[in-house]
Design goal:
single chain; 3-stranded mixed β-sheet
């Protein structure tokens, strides 16, 4: 394990902005913002560099579904004009990508499904709208598991995404396209959504930082729903500092989302430098069960030692119902999915089957042709657990267990500021390795799902390697405790350099 001050971290002793490498694919958003403001680079140059890397490398990664060069360059020129007038904020002119689950006005939004392959939204999601208002430039839409259902990014209608650390392995799901794009330096950051770990799990497998805010902190308006009580928008980026800058722009009350929290948004990026002395970090023994890869366990324990050396007090806490989180999630999430996806029937929205002999046949064939196997499996599961005679036995019982899991976390946060543990039980697995066994695939999210069931914030940061593949450290905070999570993550990244490690560029050309 190597520990060193971050050259681009202004809070680290001895740091220097001049020490930042000037390769277009290796700068943090904080560094890019400084370069844009001192006019040592332009937004057009950054966007052109991003588009060039996408054109050269995405054939091997399949991280993007849609790329918008004309629109991106026009937005970059507008950003440069604002900067020349001395206007704009810290994100003005920075290129990013959006997960293809966020509606973008006039730009295809497919949710990686044949069902929505031709959908052109007439409006922007709130996340897209707010980031555009902050001046970011969207270069394209990233690949994902179909309707965000999956843990490997293999359920996309547009083909699997490949992990830039090893093209034969998964980048995780469902925000795997965003994770691969950031890890490979195609963009410095990308949006994602997290229903059961879909930001944190791919961030861990791709060796980047992935941040899921509290439920309700970021509006879900215009974000195509999977499981409405669990879905949350967030960020995949290179550092906690970058995530803080972006979430500040995304977060806040939105009257168009009935679940949006009407709470002030703290200036997260101004709260990163607080020392960890006095912080109490809880470590549940349930996170270190027999299913955890030995290399992952060792890297996480080393990360905990770094936090202890930074002044934090490591405290054991218990989450006794953690083992129930996966079965609970796979009742609640499919139930909500079966309801949310009912609108995609070829009449109100989505793909319509051709030459159907009757209305009933048209409905059946449209949904059968439009949805992939994993989506159909979850719709059928959800319909079953909500059906008469089974609602009490499954869905109602799952909601009761959900309360127990949330209660475990609340009691733990009475004693500690942040909970720490592994993000995933193993490093990145091979593509196809788990597709024939859905239960094994679902267990990959065992350490992340409780966070969504309780609606609290969580972040995954790189903490080393196991077998040459990245390992993630997960930090969890109490509801609306984003500032504490980002603070601990940032201080850890000031003391280590795992988040600065980059994979070699993949070979150009078609997928392997």
């Amino acid at each position: 394990m190597r520990r060193a001050p971050r050259p681009d971290c202004t809070s680290c002793p001895g740091s220097s902005t001049e020490a930042v490498a000037l390769q277009g694919d290796d700068r943090s958003i904080a560094a890019l913002s400084r370069a844009l403001r001192d006019r040592s680079t332009s937004s057009r140059e950054l966007v052109e560099a991003s588009l060039e890397r996408i054109a050269r490398l995405d054939g091997a990664l399949n991280a993007f579904i849609t790329v918008n060069p004309d629109q991106a360059l026009a937005a970059a020129d507008a950003a440069d004009a604002r900067l020349a007038r001395g206007e704009g904020g810290p994100l003005t002119g920075v290129p990013i990508a959006h997960k293809d689950i966020f509606c973008t006005r006039g730009v295809a939004t497919t949710c990686a499904s044949k069902m929505l392959a031709d959908f052109i939204p007439p409006y922007d999601a709130t996340v897209v709208e707010r980031l555009a208002a902050a001046g970011v430039v969207c270069v394209g839409k990233t690949n994902m598991d179909e309707f965000a259902m999956g843990s490997s990014n293999e359920t996309s209608f547009f083909g699997p995404v490949r992990n830039p650390w090893d093209l034969q392995r998964s980048p995780g799901g469902s925000s795997g396209g965003s994770a691969a794009a950031v890890a490979a330096g195609l963009v410095p950051a990308a949006t994602g959504t997290d229903t059961g770990g879909s930001i944190r799990q791919p961030a861990a497998l791709a060796g980047i930082t992935g941040f899921k805010p509290s439920y309700g902190r970021v509006s879900r308006y215009g974000m195509i729903a999977f499981a409405s009580s669990l879905d949350q928008a967030g960020i995949l980026a290179r550092s906690a500092e970058d995530a803080a800058l972006l979430v500040e722009a995304m977060a806040g009350f939105d009257p168009r989302d009935s679940t949006s929290a009407d709470l002030p948004v703290p200036a997260y990026s101004q709260m990163l430098d607080r020392p960890l002395a006095g912080r109490r970090i809880g470590v549940p023994p349930e996170f270190f069960d027999a299913g955890l890869d030995a290399g992952c366990a060792a890297r996480v324990r080393e990360a905990l030692e770094v936090l202890r050396q930074l002044g934090a007090q490591i405290v054991e806490v218990s989450l006794p119902n953690l083992g129930l989180s996966v079965p609970t999630y796979y009742i609640v999430a499919p139930a909500e999915a079966s309801s949310n996806l009912a609108r995609f029937d070829g009449v109100r929205f989505g793909h319509r089957a051709e030459a159907a002999g009757s209305i009933e046949e048209m409905y059946k064939r449209s949904r059968q042709e439009g949805f992939g196997a994993e989506v159909r499996r979850r719709i059928m599961t959800g319909t079953y657990v909500l059906s008469s005679g089974y609602y009490d036995a499954y869905y109602l019982q799952a909601q009761k267990v959900r309360k127990l899991i949330a209660g475990d976390l609340r009691r733990a946060f009475d004693r500690v500021d942040v909970i720490a543990g592994p993000t995933t039980p193993t490093p990145a697995f091979r593509l196809g390795e788990k597709t024939s066994d859905p239960v094994q695939m679902y267990l990959n999210d065992i350490y992340t799902i409780a966070v969504n069931l309780a609606g609290v914030p969580g972040i995954s940061v790189p903490c080393g390697f196991s077998g040459g593949l990245p390992v993630g450290l997960q930090l969890i905070g109490p509801a609306f405790g984003e500032a504490a999570v980002l603070n601990v993550a940032h201080q850890y990244q000031c003391a280590t350099d795992w988040h600065r490690r980059r994979p070699a560029d993949p070979p150009t050309g078609a997928a392997q």
